[in-house]
Amino acid sequence: MDKKEEEELTCLRWSDRIYVSVRKSSLTFRPSAYALIRHLRHWLLMRTPQGLYFFPGGVIDLGEPISYAVRRGVSEETGLAVEVGKVFTVEEILIQLDIPRRFSNFHCLLMFCEARLADAYGQILPDLSSPADKNEGYPVWLDERELTAERLLPPADKVVRKLQS
Asked: Which of 37, 70, 80, 83 is paired with 25 by a 20 to 30 Å CA distance?
């Protein structure tokens, strides 16, 4: 197949949630794992620079167990220690990340895991640390009544619908 005939796929551009066409050969496979943490009727989320939300976590490094990736991602993004349970759901999405002077296209497989705070916080919401890079967003506790699919980046919106069903 020559370049003119190469398959084009629809990909979500992360920065503005617009769907764009990309070449299949431009995709990099990117498995990642995220924590579903609810404490005192609040969900632990990352607020993006665009004002939308996503669950804390991130890319699974080669050879890294899923549970370790979740613990590491939550710790790096929020400063909290968590205990990871079972995988709640797996979602798939093609995304394009805007990186200065170029785009990176990913075929993402996202594992959303049940998790809970490792330390006993009782009836308080623990303080959250902010990452050094504010362009990545910052952690927040969002009241469960405010958690709606419309406020989340895909595919976290699908996860919330499953949690609420």
From this structure: 70
